[in-house]
Write a structure and sequence with these properties.
The chain is of the alpha/beta class. The protein is built from 10 helices and 9 strands. Strands 1-2-3-5-7-9 form a 6-stranded mixed beta sheet, sandwiched between helices. Strand 2, helix 1 and strand 3 (50-55) form a beta-alpha-beta unit. Helix 3 (76-95) packs antiparallel against helix 9 (222-236). The chain is globular.
């Protein structure tokens, strides 16, 4: 079984950041921290004009939070710190001055939907269905909610947050605004992502930076907002309901 990783490759102005975990690309705290710092550093790197964010493997883009870590949370502060990991990744993506292209090759769940939503332009395969499953385990999509709502609107976000058992297909996500395009194969997706990134590299970096600032206007309070949301999740993960539910995943 492969070890978890976050790695970056830079070619011709394109930074490709890849995260991986053998448990369906679920994200424990150390991987979340590494992902946030890698995105931040790519944003500072003058050799980088655009970022592609992807996950390893062919099946699941991201299964969200690491259930193994969730099960072992025994106090509210530890819970807050864990959920702050997702907040830090989303805020790193939000404040990064480079456009981030999302490449979503397969199913994405919970926090993974938040990561996809925080990209500036997201492209997916037809296998990239989405689900906000948090309510199933007694918490809610509090940390990722603002990013998801920004892309899907309140109605779309509410629908998948309340209907926590259901995967919504890639076409539904495209119609709601999460995905810009959906492709029939991963190969076609990769070709399109690469071509799109190469085209962005021909644009004025200063113009793209100013445009990103404008596109994210109204999110300036997210450092505080997402920290507050992380505290809510950190408290709820200690509830008897959630503890009993998580036992099923041991």
């Amino acid at each position: 079984m492969s070890d978890p990783y976050v790695k970056e490759e830079i070619h011709n102005g394109i930074s490709t950041i890849t995260f991986f975990h053998p448990a369906h690309n679920s994200l424990p705290g150390d991987i979340l921290a590494k992902l946030a710092s890698t995105i931040t550093e790519a944003g500072k790197n003058e050799a980088v004009k655009v970022i592609i964010l992807k996950s390893g493997g062919d099946r699941t883009f991201c299964a969200g939070a690491s259930f193994k870590e969730l099960i072992n949370i025994n106090d509210a502060e530890t819970g807050r710190i864990f959920f702050s990991g997702f907040a830090n990744v989303i805020n790193a993506m939000r404040t990064c001055p480079k456009f981030i292209i999302g490449r979503v090759q397969g199913k994405t769940v919970g926090g993974g939907v938040g990561v996809a939503s925080a990209t500036d332009y997201c492209m997916a395969s037809k296998f990239a269905s989405i689900k906000l499953s948090e309510l199933n385990v007694g918490i809610g999509p509090f940390v990722v909610g603002p990013a998801v709502e920004r892309k899907l609107g309140l109605t779309g976000m509410s629908q998948i947050a309340i209907d926590a058992n259901t995967f919504y297909d890639a076409e539904w996500a495209r119609q709601k605004g999460l995905y810009a395009q959906v492709y029939d194969s991963i190969e076609a997706l990769d070709e399109a992502v690469q071509a799109f990134a190469e085209n962005l590299c021909t644009y004025n970096p200063e113009a793209m930076r100013e445009m990103k600032t404008i596109l994210w206007k109204g999110t300036e309070d997210w450092d505080t907002l997402l920290a507050e949301r992380a505290a809510i999740s950190g408290r709820l993960v200690l509830s008897d309901f959630t503890k009993e539910t998580l036992k099923r995943f041991k």
